[in-house]
Amino acid sequence: MSHIRTEGSVSRTRAEVAGLVDHTLLKPEATAEDVAALVAEARELGAYSVCVSPSQLPLTATGDVKVATVCGFPSGAHHAEVKAAEAARSAADGADEVDMVINLGLATTGRYDAVQEEIAAVRAAAPQVVLKVIIESAALTDDQIVGVCRAAEAAGADFVKTSTGFHPAGGASVHAVELMARTVGGRLGVKASGGIRTTEAALAMIDAGATRLGLSGTRAVLEGLSD
Questions:
Q1: Segment 90-124, tens digit of pLDDT
Q2: Among this protein's residues, is 227 annotated catalytic?
Q3: Catalytic: which of 99, 132, 158, 207?
Q4: Given Cys at both, which of 13, 155, 183, 208 links 177, Cβ 3.0 to 4.6 Å?
């Protein structure tokens, strides 16, 4: 099987793309057995991490696969101290990474200082984890995307992330990833997540500046790439 390229893209191997993937299962009805199967598949595929709901922690038999979870998910409309407590509990339960959802009501009204404060509260509660900030980019204007990305950086986040995958406005887009990557300028990672189901879509996100991918259909995406 040949490498798949999008126009202007760099050819990437299956292993290279797999190493960027948070292999994700956040369906509310997911069982412990489903999560165990997710972990086994992530190890088989060479994914960077698994991303599961916090109630599924702690995980076992993860090997070299990192453990990620979510916080304030999926609405983000939680008190900052609740998000902070959730992140702290997840860290105590073995999470290496926490993906937190911002309060969109603050973002859409330009209250970026308040967004920064809630991110900083989570950062302070779980200083040892990699903190990714889900901005729900499809629900924001370009100016709002820039504003919340700057707030995330100022608050000490490690990544900005496009989407939960649950918002009716949609998931990741190449435009949003490009704008986010340009705003953080390589100082933070950029995670593209939400609706990425094909090899071509995944490569387009990487070409746009994504340094991590959130995928639920990881196997299907990787099957389009060669070893």
A1: 999 999 999 999 999 999 999 999 999 999 999 99
A2: no
A3: 99
A4: 208
Residues 83, 132, 158, 161: which is the catalytic one?
161
Q: What is the CATH number of the domain that holds 78?
A: 3.20.20.70
Within a domain: residue 48? yes
CB 140 within 8 A of CB 109: no
Query: Among this protein's residues, is 132 annotated catalytic?
Result: no
pLDDT above 90 covers what percent of the chain? 94
pTM for the structure as a whole:
0.95
Tokens 């340094």 belong to: 211
Whose tokens are 């956040």? That residue is: 26
Is position 93 annotated as part of the catalytic site? no
SS3 of residue 168 by DSSP: coil
Tokens (6 digits) for 213: 């991918």
pLDDT, tens digit, 9 for 90 and up, residues 2-41: 344 445 566 899 999 999 999 999 999 999 999 999 999 9
Does 4 reside within a domain?
no
Q: Is residue 160 part of a domain?
A: yes
Domain limits for position 19 = 14-222
Instruction: Indicate the number of domains in the chain.
Output: 1
CA neighbor of 209 nearest in space, from 171, 172, 179: 179
Per DSSP (E only), the strands in 21-119 are 21-25, 49-52, 66-71, 97-101
Q: Residue 5 domain-assigned?
A: no
**Residues of the chain by 3-state class (helix, strand, coil), percent to 5:** 40, 15, 40
